[in-house]
Amino acid sequence: MAKLTVKDLNVRGKRVLMRVDFNVPMEEKGGQMVINDDTRIRETLPTLELLINQGAKTILMAHLGRPKGQRDPSLSLRPVAKKLADLLGRPVVFADDCVGEKAEKTAEVLQPGDVLLLENVRYYNEDEANDPVFSEKLARFADIFINDAFGAAHRAHASTEGVARAISKRGGLCAAGLLMERELKFLGDELEKPAKPFVVILGGAKVSDKIKVIDRLIEKADALLIGGAMAYTFKLALGFKVGQSLVEADKTDVAKAALEKARARGVQLLLPTDNIVVTPVKTDKLNKKGKPIIEFTSPRPLSEPNIPDSEEGVDIGPSTSKTYADVIRGAKTILWNGPMGIFEDPRFAEGTFAVARAVAEATEKNGAKSIIGGGDSVKALNNSGLGKQVTFMSTGGGASLEFLEGKVLPGVAALADNG
Ligand code: AMP
Question: Which of 182, 209, 243 represents a domain boundary (last residue)?
Fold first, then answer.
């Protein structure tokens, strides 16, 4: 059932506690923490502007990094409050704790339209432990709870789930923010009965991470295009040689079951017919973990499906790119999760970029709805400059995958149903 959203509420003059995803990448520069990418902050602006315009007293809570219950100053949200104030063009009050009398007093004097950001909730282990006493402390801030942090909704933490339960127990309303609403619409409702043909593109490192998504989507999709390292586990299951490619040899039964299910349902499940391969060479340089850095030498396209023992598949080849692009261009609904190769290295990004171009083209010329399921595919689309040409890009990584698997996300389940 659809969830209650912030648009359904009368927030005027009320104290509204909102969970947001401000887990932004930061770096120390000249003794100060600097935000490297403010996308996550910007994404909360529509909900925040709505709350401000309607005269709510908004109290924001978020986590940053993994302070593991310690007050680690490098993981303070103070720089985020400053950035948010710049983006909103109005002051944002900062409380240097997320619970307790002082923070509560700061919240009490807020005026309609004011915004307060609480300090990192992960300064307390009680957040991840979903501690009921801590949840009650958070719940004291407000009578209305809004969750706009889809990326954290798959975890039952005090700031996502416990607080919602505590507020609804005493009759308060818990609703989705605008960003959360869009995530639920595109990753949920739109994929419930997708316009056909429905093409699913899956890539990335591991079959095991995405097998439940594959299993569920075979029941809805017309075609599944597989790329990335996970394709090599499928290839191994079919008896091909994969050389040094990244595989999960113990997951070939899972891959076989997916192939069989697709065949039985008449779903096209395509695997790469050619690859870009390299010869991996161990160097004497060590990485951060003290392991030798592997250099990828002698890249070449290989049109033969078997990969020689000394070589490794790092991207789909040009012929596969073309086949996949043709299928994608005919789609009316597209879901994409995971790159086709090691796209972080420009030499092996072409397969992923070819898919990105085809997805953008299908959206523009074929009127397809294109939904990007978060994580690295979003990065790849942004790198290729095509981010604005797709219908929707999810802000969740793990949360999107779990939602696509059909799991109930605790942070969503805790919100009130609409109707
Ligand atoms: P995931 O988080 O599962 O979507 O995986 C993304 C990662 O998969 C990226 O860091 C890619 O570099 C990596 N990846 C994609 N294709 C390959 C490949 N053929 N071999 C090794 N890693 C790959």
Answer: 182
d(CA 329, CA 225): 13
> Measured between alpha carbons, how far is residue 274 from residues 126, 262, 322, 369, 402 in Å?
50, 21, 11, 28, 31
**Tally of CA atoms within 13 A in the half-sphere of 258 that contains its CB:** 32
196 vs 47: CA distance, rounded Å: 32
- Write down the pTM of the prediction: 0.91
Residues with CB under 6 A from ligand 1: 203-206, 209, 228-229, 246, 313-314, 338-339, 341-342, 344, 375-376
Calculate how far, in angstroms, residue 203's C-alpha sits from the geometric centre of ligand 1: 7
Question: Are 20 and 87 found together in one domain?
Answer: yes
Q: If DSSP codes are grouped into helix, strand and coil, which group holds residue 119?
A: coil
Q: Are residues 390 and 339 in the same domain?
A: yes
Domain tally, the chain: 2
DSSP state of 242: B
User: Per-residue confidence at 396, pLDDT binned at 50, 70, 90?
Assistant: confident
273, 307 Cβ separation under 8 angstroms: no
* 280: preceding bond cis by omega (within 30 degrees): no
Helix (H) or strand (E) holding 276: strand 275-286
Q: Which atom of ligand 1 is nearest to the CA of 344?
A: 12
Q: Do 398 and 183 contact (CB within 8 A), yes or no?
A: no
Residue 168 DSSP SS3: helix
412 assigned to some structural domain = no
141 and 241 co-located in one domain:
no
- Domain containing 278 equals 193-405
Q: Are residues 157 and 27 in the same domain?
A: yes
Question: Would you please indicate which residues are annotated as catalytic (active-site) residues?
Answer: 40, 206, 375, 398
Whether residue 1 is predicted with pLDDT greater than 90 in this model: the reply is no
- DSSP-based helix, strand, coil % in the chain, nearest 5: 40, 20, 40
Query: For residue 185, what are the contacts with CB-CB under 8 A and spacing of at least 6?
Result: none
Structure confidence by residue, pLDDT tens digits, 242-269: 999 999 999 999 999 999 999 999 999 9
Q: Tell how far the Cα of 302 is from the centroid of ligand 1, in angstroms.
A: 19
Helix ranges restricted to H, 266-339: 318-329
User: In whole angstroms, how large is the CA radius of gyration of the chain?
Assistant: 23
Give the domain-ending residue among 182, 215, 241.
Answer: 182
Contact 93, 59 (CB under 8 A): no
